[in-house]
């Protein structure tokens, strides 16, 4: 609430909220008219300094006035107000308490700003006591009462939050990213690639915004430099998001000649000679209203952004647009009243798990002004109730954008502080454990033709085996390169497909201790007689022939393959390891192959004469049966083409 900004007046100091106080106390011993005249004259200079925005000189003159008149209550209150305006709340609290100590009756009119400074250093219980006492003053007018009640609600929220989220031994220790990244200009709006090796941010120099990059090499950030290519112009570029694979940048461009409105979303692509000239996302997404603060999902299929276009619940809301198979963006959808409020929501950031959305809002309950929140995507249209990130990440002041690295614990944001190089700097810190999203790994590689070895543009799908929910769908580049994310704690089916080829499948079972980064170069077999693929997501219990539920994701892919190739005929082959008797293994493998065929027939989409099955037992091993890993590879189901 900017009405609480510090100002001066010749008779007792007012901090802007004092415009709402009805009457001065009249039972104190302190008398402003009896202040030492020399001290009063110096105080008048301080007032003029503050009027001119020279807060440093104002503080210096207040200090002189206090040296002359050590019990100058108004001087302490004035200095407290300036410190509060500069967000030096610890110093502000000391001065308010000195004034209250000197004359509690005179200074009690200032209990509201005192409470705000207490909250600024996290002393919410004391802040609540101070504002509660403030509200007992029966001479307050309606504006004063409203301001006090508003602050009282925020302090009660903070106290309640601490009870629900005990911090234990959590230490909020933010770290300045250093001289290589930060300068005497303003740095803000960080964005990061999935491997946390490239940082892209906005730097403002002489009111001109451009994008800069820094690389994390041998444990430190390299000297930041402007992005190469044509994305930076003599216009203002800001509020950007780099795709997790580092290939796209989507950003906010304001007052561009071809813009739909005041601020539009633009996209630039990484080329061999730098970043391409930015392209307007187009009139389906951009309107004659305001669009800003974009964030891409890790698979680059969903674009989240803030806008005040039609259909909002208040001021600015968060919307999402989906990239269709033809590469076009769909008409934006409002994320709904669980995320959006009658206030403003902005600065969205979709985390690498493609489920956790961070954003800021001044409409949800919080600490005052704009706080940071996160919400989980429950399905394509439903979100969990947003959760406040808590103090000291959120404070009584405005919080801007925040991003979280794929480790789920390292966060980056822009802030001011005593160690800032110049205004806003970029910082990192560790999130509390209870608000960390799941650590997210990734798999990357190249899809290629198994015969020619040429790269193949293909579709890479990641599906949660247990829920059968599609987590991400990535399109490789023209050379077949891809990257997809893998949140830990789940089991995934990875499916790679392209028309005219057998699909490829892989299984990833990632527990919370997994820490490997996977490289999978994937050969696709052209559909022709004799081509085969191992179905790695077909599951059976030991010595059983009943398909486990997790198999359905892969089996549905087989159904789709058969439907896309109506002349295709296949053989499903079952194999075991060498444990047990040969006849038993043959029976078991035959039963498992039959179970697959029965499922395909049950789909009622595939003719019986297109399907064959056979069990081979322990014959044709593909790995060493002398160890468990080899045995697991030998227990498999294969699909092979008999004719097409």
What can you see in these coordinates?
This protein is α+β, with helices and mostly antiparallel strands. It has 4 domains: 2-164, Serine Threonine Protein Phosphatase 5, Tetratricopeptide repeat (Alpha Horseshoe), CATH 1.25.40; 183-340 and 407-435, Neuraminidase, CATH 2.120.10; 438-526, Immunoglobulin-like (Sandwich), CATH 2.60.40; 536-644, 60s Ribosomal Protein L30, Chain: A (2-Layer Sandwich). A hairpin with a 2-residue loop joins strand 9 (263-271) and strand 10. The N and C termini lie far apart (70 Å). Strands 2, 3, 4, 5 and 6 form a 5-stranded antiparallel beta sheet that branches. Residues 1-27 have low confidence and may be disordered. It contains 11 helices and 34 strands. 23% of the residues lie in helices and 28% in strands.
Count up the helices. Answer: 11
CATH homologous superfamily heading of the largest domain: TolB, C-terminal domain
* Low-pLDDT residue intervals, each spanning 5 or more residues: 1-27
Mean pLDDT: 90
């Amino acid at each position: 609430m900017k009405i609480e900004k510090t100002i001066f007046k010749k008779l007792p100091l007012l901090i802007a909220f004092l415009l709402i106080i009805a009457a001065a106390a009249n039972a104190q011993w302190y008398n402003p008219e009896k202040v030492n005249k020399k001290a009063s004259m110096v105080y008048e200079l301080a007032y003029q300094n503050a009027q001119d925005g020279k807060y440093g000189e104002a503080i210096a003159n207040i200090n002189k006035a206090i040296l002359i008149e050590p019990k100058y209550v108004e001087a302490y209150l004035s200095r407290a107000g300036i410190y509060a305006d500069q967000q030096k709340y610890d110093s502000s609290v000391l001065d308010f308490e000195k004034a209250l100590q000197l004359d509690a009756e005179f200074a009690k009119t200032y209990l509201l700003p005192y409470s705000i400074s207490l909250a600024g250093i996290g002393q919410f219980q004391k802040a609540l006591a101070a504002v509660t006492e403030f509200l007992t003053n029966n001479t307050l007018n309606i504006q004063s009462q409203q301001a006090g009640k508003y602050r009282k609600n925020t302090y009660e929220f903070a106290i309640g939050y601490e009870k629900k989220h005990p911090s234990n031994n959590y230490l909020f220790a933010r770290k300045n990213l250093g001289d290589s990244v930060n300068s005497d200009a303003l740095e803000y709006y960080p964005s990061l690639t999935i491997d946390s090796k490239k940082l892209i941010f906005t730097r403002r120099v002489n009111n001109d915004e451009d994008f800069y990059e820094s690389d994390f090499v041998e444990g430190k950030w390299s000297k930041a430099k402007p992005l190469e290519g044509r994305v930076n112009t003599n216009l203002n570029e800001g509020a950007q998001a780099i795709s997790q694979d580092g290939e796209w940048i989507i950003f906010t461009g304001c007052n561009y000649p071809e813009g739909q409105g005041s601020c539009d979303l633009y996209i630039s692509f990484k080329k061999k000679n730098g970043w391409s000239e930015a392209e307007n996302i187009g009139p389906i997404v951009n309107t004659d209203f305001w669009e800003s603060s974009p964030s891409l999902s890790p698979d680059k299929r969903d674009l989240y952004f803030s806008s005040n276009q039609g259909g909002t619940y208040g001021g600015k809301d968060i919307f999402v647009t989906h990239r269709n198979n033809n590469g076009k963006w769909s008409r934006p959808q409002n994320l709904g009243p669980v995320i959006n409020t009658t206030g403003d929501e902005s600065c969205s950031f979709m985390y690498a798990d493609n489920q956790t959305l961070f954003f800021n809002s001044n409409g949800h309950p919080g600490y005052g002004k704009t706080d940071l929140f996160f919400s989980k995507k429950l399905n394509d249209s439903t979100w969990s109730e947003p959760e406040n990130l808590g103090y000291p990440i959120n404070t009584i002041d405005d919080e801007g954008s925040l991003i979280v690295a794929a480790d789920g614990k390292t966060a980056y944001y822009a802030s001011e502080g005593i160690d800032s190089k110049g205004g806003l700097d970029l910082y990192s810190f560790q999130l509390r454990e209870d608000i960390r999203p799941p650590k997210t790994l990734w798999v990357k590689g190249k899809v290629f033709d198994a015969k020619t070895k040429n790269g193949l543009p293909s579709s890479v799908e990641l599906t949660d085996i247990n829920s059968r929910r599609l987590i991400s769908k990535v399109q490789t580049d023209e050379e077949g390169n891809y990257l997809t994310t893998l949140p830990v704690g789940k089991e995934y089916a990875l499916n790679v497909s392209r028309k005219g080829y057998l699909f490829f499948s892989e299984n990833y079972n990632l527990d919370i201790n997994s820490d490997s980064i996977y490289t999978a170069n994937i050969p696709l077999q052209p559909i022709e007689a004799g081509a085969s693929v191992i179905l790695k997501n077909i599951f059976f219990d030991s010595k059983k022939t009943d398909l486990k539920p997790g198999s359905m994701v892969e089996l549905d892919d087989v159904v789709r393959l058969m439907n896309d190739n109506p002349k295709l005929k296949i053989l499903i082959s079952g194999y075991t390891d060498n444990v047990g008797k040969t006849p038993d293994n043959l029976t078991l493998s035959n039963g498992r192959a039959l179970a697959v065929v029965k499922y395909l027939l049950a789909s009622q989409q595939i003719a019986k004469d297109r399907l064959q099955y056979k069990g081979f037992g322990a014959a044709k091993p593909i790995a060493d049966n002398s160890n468990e890993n080899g045995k697991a590879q030998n227990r498999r189901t294969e699909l092979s083409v008999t004719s097409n």
